[in-house]
Amino acid sequence: MQKPLETPLRYEEEGNVHLDFHGAVNTTIDFIVERYGVEVLHEIFAKVGKDVYVDLRRHLQAGDPNEMVRHWRHFFTRENADYDIAVGEDEIVLIVRHCTAYHHVAKIAPSVSAHFCDQTTKVNEAVAEGTPYRIDTEITGPGACRQIIRRRS
Amino acid sequence: MIPSDHFTRFYNEVFKFLESKGQEDLELYWLEISKNQEKHILDLIKTKGLQGMYEYWSVIEEEENCDLDLTVDDDHLELHMHGCPSLAKVMDNDAAPMTRYCDHCAGWIGPIMDKTGYHLVYDAISRTEPRCVMRIYKDAEKAKEAEKSVQLLMGWPGKQERG
């Protein structure tokens, strides 16, 4: 039997990747925190989660966390990260052992911002806000984390 | 991780916040991005001049999947962007585009050209079409002449009027 065709992701990409953009994110994070404070940075990430990733939120609101899994697979694969995703009955766990973004910034910038991984934590929180799911992010080391999708109790 | 593919949509949210704070805040940010970009382009310009710029934008063409034509001769570099992926992604976006999104390009490139003694003429053409023309001259008079035929001339922090 043929597997049904999946619809493309809302922001599916092809072609080359320009990893230096992660360096610009790092610069931006430090600029915003120094001038306006970390709360403003988090508000901007929340806007990204809610306003840019509308489609991911729509899927979570409809009880479908699989679109988030597809999103992770597509972009972590494009960036050649070292990761695994375990889809269980009660939770979905993304384990990132080598985050390409973090390690690229460590290579090209004087330092990785102390708030660099807030982009993951805060965007995840905002994508899941108001849906039946939570997405928790645990930083497990430099350029390593666990991201967990669970139904809210 | 915000994927590098989605950087421009993050950038767009940052621009909208900074625009709400005022023009000076936006320009300070462009200057910060300009400083960040120096590590990718400044040595190329200092050691190879226009040819170094050609090398830099050749990498950008490939890595950012741009549809552009790039030429260089002894006195100027010319970049014709036919399909700008940066603005195209910001317009193909569930979040609203920042209306002056295009301004950031001259905003970071201009200060580097001022610093290295080159003369930028940046024609955005239209802020809602993902295309533009960038010309960089060794000679200020030639830049001044080129400015006469642009459709939407971009400025940048610290830009001096030419003549």
SSE map:
The complex is a heterodimer of chains A (153) and B (163).
Chain A: H1 21-36, H2 38-52, H3 54-61, H4 66-78, E1 82-87, E2 91-98, H5 100-108, H6 118-128, E3 133-141, E4 144-151
Antiparallel strand pairs in A: 1-2, 2-4, 3-4
Helix pairs in contact in A: 1-2, 2-6
Chain B: H1 7-21, H2 23-48, H3 50-63, E1 67-72, E2 76-83, H4 85-91, H5 103-116, E3 119-123, E4 132-137, H6 140-147
Task: Note down, in words, how this protein is organized.
The complex is a heterodimer of chains A (153) and B (163). With 153 residues, chain A is of the alpha+beta class. Chain A contains six helices and four strands. Chain A has one domain (21-151): Muramoyl-pentapeptide Carboxypeptidase, domain 2 (2-Layer Sandwich), CATH 3.30.1380. Helix content of chain A is 47%, strand content 20%. The longest helix of chain A has 16 residues, at 21-36. Chain A is globular, with a radius of gyration of 16 Å. The mean pLDDT of chain A is 96. With 163 residues, chain B is of the alpha+beta class. Chain B has a single domain (4-147), classed as Muramoyl-pentapeptide Carboxypeptidase, domain 2 (2-Layer Sandwich). In chain B, 52% of the residues lie in helices and 15% in strands. Chain B has helices at residues 7-21, 23-48, 50-63, 85-91, 103-116, 140-147; strands at residues 67-72, 76-83, 119-123, 132-137. Chain B has a four-stranded antiparallel beta sheet, with helices on both faces. In chain B, helix 2 (23-48) crosses helix 3 (50-63) and helix 2 (23-48) packs across helix 5 (103-116). Chains A and B meet through helix 1, helix 2, helix 4, helix 5 and helix 6 of A and helix 1, helix 2 and helix 3 of B.
